[in-house]
């Protein structure tokens, strides 16, 4: 018989929400409430951010939101079209066939439209451009005929056009230079494109469709999404013009972020000094607003200042709009606010109490560092060769290994100050031009040998051998027999870890670094410059203006090629100044340049709107604070080229080219601007290798790494590594001929190779 608990039916009190919650007096160990109040004085209460639950939009709300966004984008596009309605659409006509003559085709297109009773107006600018206005579209066009024989002039023209009209003859097909041409255009930045077929009526009717499909297939190699059109009848021409005017303009960042102008009229006013004068450039301003106090850049000419900007009337626009604009002065340069043309910093000789070398001292040091080269008959001893007179030479012998590593630099600072840069100016590579194709006719051996340069062939062969050796055994260098290794590699240091070992970026800066400019925070400056574009006052986009550019050399103006248009770009602040420019490059797959590209070779760079020559050094494109120096720009590699160059704000496309001896050039790489950073440390890595002489468990006797006892003692603190992953140190030298005893952290194999790197 079980007994009932005594308190089973007794009610239990449960506190409700209004229960009083007394403050806990847990002040922590050895601290009273008074101490906490003293510590709390002056502090503000921290407001805890309450996270609000995200409101889930209903289906109707999402539809309404998408409708508003779509309407806003449509209004922006329409406003942009209305704003530029009276501005001609720039069209560059580029033939891709030999028998396509642009002038005749444009006249033929105009005649076909006039015979079809299409209402239009035509005009020709003083620089040779053809203006066309179609009443049906209410759109004006400006057709530019660039000189395709000059690729650099063609690229300058394509920097400012809105659309490229490629013309292909159905009767002939593509030209043999199309690969080089299209590679350069795509590398620079491709605007909107239209591909048109001409001479299709010359093809039999049964083969016209097949011919069009073949051209469509070929053009897809460069423009995969492009559809080929015909321009034989008036309907075809109107369809092409409608497509040009209505298609979306492709954005090119380096162009759209800067004011630019295509010169339709040019005039030169000589000043009191006959060597210079003022050039008046007239045309439609595009891109961004242009201030008279800023600087402008003319590709191939340089940077210049402006005197004033005028608002000018355009007779062609007046003919179909009826609106006339009186010529008025918009802005006049203010000397106090105008940007200067100073591109280099002037170093202070007394800065930091450092004695600065003068120009005479620099020239004297350069002359002392010239190498003495002797031409010695084969088999002559060193004692006999001492009686031969010395001959000074400014260039290095490329057949020796010391040519590549005699600079012994460990960062960009030492490399840029190396005197061997000058010797690379004459190191050109002989390459067949795209335009000069060898004839198929047989050539006599004697005539062929007259054009054969044996010395040049040997130089190219040695370069190819060096490039292959660099690919097979990267960074490995033979220890010289005639020079102590401790002197040969005295600028090098042993790094325990390439990634984590510290390196002072301001150590041993060359004198040239005192003449360049550096940003405290380059990314922040770039963002601020792009943001300030909205606040610029002056000439606005789509205005027809006249820019007065001062101090133009008269010889430069009168010697210009009239076939290449004059293009004007407005510079952002600081873009005229020199700094260290880093660009990422890769080898193009469509154009093959088989000769190796050695570091410090003279190359032509086109960075957006600017073109210059430089002697860059190559490094790996990796993460970290140190980057390994690359001796060659190999075919399937991506490298970073570092050079002294004017400042360019990214994003900006880059093309690297190399001149050949026949006057032509080859494109060797394309990419984009990475940064403007003088603190980028480029480390040259050198590996000294040795071979095992005796092996016993964890120790080995190594030879052929050094050839004297003093070098072994010098490199004793540096860690040894093997190809099989063992690590160790030099214990002691054995004898006087470079043998040394080494200990490792594991079993050593007899087929292993020992390195110091």
From TrEMBL:
Residues 44-57 have a biased composition (Polar residues). PROSITE patterns: G_BMS1 (PS51714). InterPro entries: AARP2CN (IPR012948), Bms1/Tsr1 (IPR039761), BMS1_TSR1_C (IPR007034), G_Bms1/Tsr1_dom (IPR030387). Residues 22-33 have a biased composition (Basic residues). GO terms for biological process: endonucleolytic cleavage of tricistronic rRNA transcript (SSU-rRNA, 5.8S rRNA, LSU-rRNA); maturation of SSU-rRNA from tricistronic rRNA transcript (SSU-rRNA, 5.8S rRNA, LSU-rRNA). Belongs to the TRAFAC class translation factor GTPase superfamily. Bms1-like GTPase family. TSR1 subfamily. Required during maturation of the 40S ribosomal subunit in the nucleolus. PANTHER family: PRE-RRNA-PROCESSING PROTEIN TSR1 HOMOLOG (PTHR12858:SF1), RIBOSOME BIOGENESIS PROTEIN (PTHR12858). This is Pre-rRNA-processing protein TSR1 homolog. It comes from Aphis craccivora.
């Amino acid at each position: 018989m079980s007994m009932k608990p005594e308190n089973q039916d007794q009610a239990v009190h449960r506190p409700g929400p209004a229960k009083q919650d007394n403050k806990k007096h847990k002040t922590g160990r050895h601290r009273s409430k008074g101490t906490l109040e003293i510590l709390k004085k002056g502090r503000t209460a921290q407001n805890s951010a309450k996270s609000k639950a995200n409101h889930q939009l209903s289906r109707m709300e999402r539809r309404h939101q998408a409708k508003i966004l779509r309407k806003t984008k449509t209004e922006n596009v329409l406003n942009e079209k209305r704003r530029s309605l009276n501005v001609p659409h720039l069209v560059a006509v580029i033939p891709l066939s030999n028998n396509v003559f642009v002038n005749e085709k444009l006249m033929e297109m105009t005649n076909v439209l006039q015979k079809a009773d299409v209402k239009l107006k035509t005009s020709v600018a003083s620089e040779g451009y053809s203006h066309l206005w179609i009443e049906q579209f209410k759109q004006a066009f400006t057709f530019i005929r660039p000189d395709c024989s000059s690729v650099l002039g063609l690229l300058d023209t394509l920097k400012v056009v809105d659309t490229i009209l490629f013309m292909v003859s159905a009767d002939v097909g593509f030209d043999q230079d199309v690969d080089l041409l299209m590679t350069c255009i795509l590398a620079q930045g491709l605007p909107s494109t239209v591909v048109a077929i001409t001479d299709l009526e010359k093809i039999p009717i049964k083969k016209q469709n097949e011919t069009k499909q073949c051209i469509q297939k070929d053009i897809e190699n460069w423009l995969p999404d492009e559809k080929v059109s015909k321009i034989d009848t008036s309907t075809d021409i109107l369809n092409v013009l409608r497509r040009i005017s209505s298609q979306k303009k492709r954005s090119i960042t380096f162009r759209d972020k800067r004011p630019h102008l295509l010169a339709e009229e040019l005039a030169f006013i000589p000043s009191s000094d006959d060597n210079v004068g003022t050039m008046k450039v007239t045309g439609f301003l595009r891109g961004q607003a242009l201030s008279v106090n800023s600087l402008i850049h003319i590709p191939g000419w340089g940077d210049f200042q402006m005197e004033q900007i005028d608002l000018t009337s355009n007779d062609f626009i007046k003919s179909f709009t009826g609106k006339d604009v009186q010529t008025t002065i918009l802005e006049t340069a203010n000397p106090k606010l105008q940007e200067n043309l100073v591109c280099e910093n002037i170093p202070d000789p007394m800065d930091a109490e450092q004695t600065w070398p003068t120009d005479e001292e620099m020239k004297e040091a350069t002359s002392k560092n010239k190498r003495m080269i002797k031409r010695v008959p084969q088999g002559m001893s060193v004692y006999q060769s001492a009686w031969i007179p010395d001959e000074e030479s400014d260039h290095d012998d490329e057949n020796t290994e010391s040519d590549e590593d005699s600079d012994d630099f460990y960062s960009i600072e030492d490399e840029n100050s190396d005197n061997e840069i000058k010797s690379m100016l004459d190191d050109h590579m002989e390459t067949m031009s795209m335009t000069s194709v060898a004839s198929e006719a047989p050539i006599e051996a004697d005539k062929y040998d007259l054009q054969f340069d044996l010395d040049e062939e040997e130089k190219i062969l040695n370069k190819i051998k060096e490039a292959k050796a660099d690919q097979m055994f990267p960074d490995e260098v033979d220890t010289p027999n005639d020079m102590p290794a401790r002197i040969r590699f005295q600028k090098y240091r042993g790094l325990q870890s390439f990634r984590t070992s510290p390196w002072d970026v301001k150590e041993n800066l060359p004198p040239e670094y005192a003449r360049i400019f550096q940003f405290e925070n380059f990314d922040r400056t770039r963002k601020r410059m792009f943001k300030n574009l909205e606040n610029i006052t002056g000439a606005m986009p789509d205005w027809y203006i006249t820019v007065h550019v001062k101090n133009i050399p008269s010889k430069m103006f009168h010697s210009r090629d009239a076939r290449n248009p004059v293009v004007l770009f407005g510079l952002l602040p600081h873009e005229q100044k020199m700094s260290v420019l880093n660009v990422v490059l890769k080898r193009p797959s469509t154009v093959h340049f088989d000769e190796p590209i050695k570091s410090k070779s003279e190359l032509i760079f086109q960075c957006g709107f600017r073109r210059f020559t430089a002697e860059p050094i190559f490094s790996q494109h990796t993460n970290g604070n140190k980057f390994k120096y690359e001796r060659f720009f190999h075919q399937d590699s991506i490298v970073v080229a570092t050079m002294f160059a004017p400042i360019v704000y990214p994003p900006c496309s880059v093309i690297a080219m190399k001149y050949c001896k026949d006057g032509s050039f080859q494109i060797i790489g394309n990419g984009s601007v990475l940064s403007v950073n003088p603190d980028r440390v480029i480390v040259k890595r050198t590996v000294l290798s040795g071979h095992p002489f005796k092996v016993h468990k964890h120790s080995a006797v190594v030879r052929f790494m050094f050839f004297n006892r003093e070098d072994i003692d010098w490199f004793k603190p540096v860690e040894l590594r093997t190809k099989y992953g063992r690590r160790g140190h030099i214990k002691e030298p054995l004898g006087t001929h470079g043998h040394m005893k080494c200990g490792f952290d594991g079993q050593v194999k007899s087929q292993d190779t020992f390195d110091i790197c």
